[in-house]
Design a protein that fits this description.
This protein is α/β, with parallel strands linked by helices. The protein has 11 helices and 6 strands. Helix content is 51%, strand content 13%. Helix 1 links the parallel strand 1 (2-7) and strand 2. The N and C termini lie far apart (42 Å).
Length: 225
């Protein structure tokens, strides 16, 4: 059962999300919060697996709440940011704060439960139209630190190859097919990549890959040998 906390300053929005999610056999709504302060309090109280986090709220906004949650004792929780805004600054700030996904409220209701399952499983989720601008935004920001550069030097050639394919949006199954590996082997490579780079999830690893220059916006994925 995936435990979910809904955070939004509008009661009608929270009620709508609850109605959608309560119809899912594998999802349980453990609480609702109307701002970031209450979100932090209820996350510590109920220990949800996923927090659906609005961005613009009184007292403490969703970005600040995400940053506080993921830098403290609740750091294992997954945050899925939901907003009506698709401005680059919100995407960048949300993911920099540690969010695992970013979904517009205009997305079809059927996508919400799927997004929660994706994030709860440890994967990251971004609306496709947001991803393109997000990557370009990251590329234009400060480059990787010396510590990050050293971390990339610890990757094996195969791990680097897997990371590049992750950055091109390949799933573990697709990577396994392209590299003629078993899926468990790919999962092992992915786990080691995350550990070496200190990446929270796939989105964070992709961001680091772009910052390191392993992948460039608009470049095609490499063809298997």
């Amino acid at each position: 059962m995936i435990r979910v906390l809904i955070v939004d300053d509008q009661a009608l929005v929270r009620g709508g999300f609850r109605s959608i999610l309560e119809g899912q056999a594998d999802i349980e709504v453990v609480g609702e919060a109307e701002d970031g302060v209450e979100a932090v309090e209820l996350t510590r109280k109920h220990a949800p697996d996923v927090v659906l986090m609005d961005v613009r709220m009184p007292r403490m906004d969703g970005i600040a709440a995400t940053r506080e949650l993921l830098s403290g004792e609740s750091a294992t929780v997954r945050v899925l940011v939901l907003t009506t805004f698709d401005h680059d600054e919100y995407v960048y700030d949300a993911l920099s704060a540690g969010a695992s996904g970013f979904l517009l409220k205009s997305a079809p209701p059927r996508e919400l439960a799927g997004a929660i399952r994706t994030v709860a499983a440890g994967d990251a989720l971004l609306a496709p139209d947001i991803t393109r601008r997000l990557i370009q935004d990251y590329v234009n920001r400060p480059r990787q630190t010396a510590a990050q550069s050293r971390a990339f030097e610890t990757l094996t050639p195969r791990e680097t190859e897997v990371l590049v394919l992750i950055a091109h949006g390949r799933s573990n199954g697709e990577i396994a097919t392209e590299l003629y590996l078993s899926e468990p082997t790919v999962k092992t490579h992915v786990t080691r990549i995350f550990a070496k780079l200190g990446a929270r999830d796939r989105v964070h690893a992709v961001v680091l890959a772009y910052q390191a220059g392993l992948v460039h916006p608009g470049a095609a994925a490499p063809s298997p040998d």
